[in-house]
């Protein structure tokens, strides 16, 4: 049969294009475990298994596609209204499955891997997330936006974050170094090593993490170890956004340089302890604190 009319030729051309159009709707990215994650079309129902992933997805423009999150997913405020699927340490598998997500964002070092694997075995698409550098935060924003079909928003958020961090690096590139102890938790006493994202924030500001050489990402330490290191500044996140009570016990050690110079500084934990764009503001505050420490020499 000959297709001679314009209408017939258009219909034939459309038929030939359909496979290519279907293929173009497929979206793929590499996750932080080095695995290829592909969806037949941008995700419409996303479950986030860490507060950080929830925040990153909102930043990437995918907030309206989120249908579930774990406890303590509290930023932005809209995240508080999402149905809960347990905590990041113990997932409610039935709650996850009931939401029928087409994408689940897991936290490599935080979620129970056996539960994540089970979700995968049950047919869910899993993106494993673990931003370890500022560059990873920006890259994650772009990847999430690809998976959600919100590339313009994701790229803009990533560029803003990259530019902000680059500006801080330039500003403090020649600043005098400040030995820093960062307290990530009080009981048990915990800090971060040089591989942690918080340690990168310290370096950006011209600080030196006194426990950078420890082998564990978030090691437990004793107060004696802090006293032996004698940091010039002690920075703590505390248990709330405006609760610097963890700094008070250090005042019982007046021989510490940080105590003698009143270099006991608080940074709201949500701005420095989650791998999200809020780290830009947290790093700015940290840099101002270290500038104060330099001025008190």
Automatic annotation (TrEMBL):
Q: Which residues form the signal peptide?
A: 1-22
Fetch the InterPro entries from UniProt: ABC_Transporter_SBP, ABC_transptr_periplasmic_BD, Vit_B12_bind_prot
Q: Which PROSITE patterns match?
A: FE_B12_PBP (PS50983)
> Which SUPFAM superfamilies does the record cross-reference, listed alphabetically?
Helical backbone' metal receptor
Keyword set includes Metal-binding? no
The Fe/B12 periplasmic-binding domain sits at: 45-294
Q: Which domain of life is it from?
A: Bacteria
This protein's record includes keyword Transmembrane helix? no
Alphabetically ordered keywords of this record: Signal
Q: What is this protein called?
A: Fe3+-hydroxamate ABC transporter periplasmic binding protein
Instruction: Please give the organism.
Output: Alloalcanivorax profundimaris
Its organism's taxonomic lineage begins at: Bacteria, Pseudomonadati, Pseudomonadota, Gammaproteobacteria, Oceanospirillales
